[in-house]
Amino acid sequence: MGTNARTAEKSGSDDVERLPGGSVEARQAWFTIGDLAREFDVTLRTLRFYEDKGLLNPRREGLNRIYNRRDRARLKLVLMGKRVGFSLTEIKEVLDLYDLKDNQLTQLRVALKKFNEQIGVLEAQKRDCELALDELKTTVGQVADMIKTREKTRN
């Protein structure tokens, strides 16, 4: 098999496709905490924390957590939201709107508003970073010049 080949494994009663990196295809009906931790490269503790915060709601079978496709999709959105700078509270607000029965129109409008606001925040941070880099580069040049001057007067 080549490196791009998929291999099928049995997990419960569902066929699971494992991709070359070990990630699980989304068509699987349920996932263990270990499945999601491996697929999204997060710790078990992170998943339990998200559960405590109400972001995920796995089914329990004894001491085992069983996550469904909805939980997996929510986790994917949580991680994307964190990556672009949203707080867990903001992420939860948007995710909770999925449960409304208005064809997700409210959720989409709120999400669009929050996304546009976050774009503004990130663009401002980008400008601040660019200014800080310019200042630091200028300072590095000045310090390098001072070192050269002092080395010349020393010799």
Walk me through this protein's architecture:
This protein has 155 residues and is α+β, with helices and mostly antiparallel strands. It has two domains: 28-85, Multidrug-efflux Transporter Regulator, Chain: A, Domain 2, CATH 1.10.1660.10; 100-154. The protein has five helices and five strands, in the order βββααββααα. The strands form two sheets. A three-stranded antiparallel beta sheet has the order 3-5-4. It has a two-stranded antiparallel sheet with strand order 1-2. A hairpin with a 2-residue loop joins β1 and β2. The protein is elongated, with a radius of gyration of 24 Å. Mean pLDDT is 83; it is low at 1-21.
Brief write-up:
Residues 7-18 have a biased composition (Basic and acidic residues). The strands form 2 sheets. The chain has a 3-stranded antiparallel β-sheet. It has a two-stranded antiparallel sheet with strand order 1-2. It has helices spanning 33-40, 44-52, 69-83, 88-96, 105-154; strands at 7-11, 14-18, 30-32, 59-61, 64-68.
